[in-house]
What does this fold into?
Amino acid sequence: MIAPTHPGFGHAALPDWIDSVDDLAYIYLDLLYALDLRDVTVVGTSLGGWLAAEIAAFAGGFSGVPGAKYPNMFVFFAISTPGHTPEEIRDAVHAEIARIQKEDITDEELAMIKTRAKADLIRKLGDNEGLAFELGGAQALYGDWREVFRQVDRIEKVSKADIRRIANTTFVESNRTIGISETTHLAQASAGGKENQ
It folds into this structure.
C-alpha cells in the first residue's frame, strides 16, 4: 500500500503551479508511472476520493509515438468507468476533437494547457535523471541542448487559432486508427469470481 501526503498538507510543500484537482491527479499519475504500477486500486476520502475518481476516469493525449524526431503519431487515450462502454469513450473523444476543429478553446482552457505544459517540463527537470533525459533528447532532436530552456517561450506563443488549425490538419479521419483494449477482470469480479458460461 502506498499512502502519499497531498502537496500542501502536513510537511509537504505546495508548488505554486498546482491550481486544480487535475494538477494533483497528474502528480499521482506521474507517481504511478514512475513506480511502474499498473492495474492498481486507487481509493480515498474527501479530497482523496475526488482525486481517486479523477485518476480512475483519466483521459489525455500525447505526441511522439513511436519517436519525436520524424513525423509521428498523436495518441488520445481514455479509461472508462464501470457502466460505460469503450464505444461511448471513443464517441466522446471524437466529439471533443470535432469541437476544437470547429471552435476556439476558451481562454481558461488555453491558460490551463500552458500552465500544465510548463509544470510538466519543470517536473521533468527536477532530478538528475530527468535533466539528463531532457538535455539529451533536445540535443538528439534539435541539435542543441539549449532547446529545453526555449520550450517555455514556444509554449507561451501557442494561440487558440494554432490549436484549431492543427486540429483541422492533423486529426482527420484518414489519419485515424482506433484501438480498444478490454479486460475481463471486472466482469469476473462482479460475477463473484465465477466464470461466465
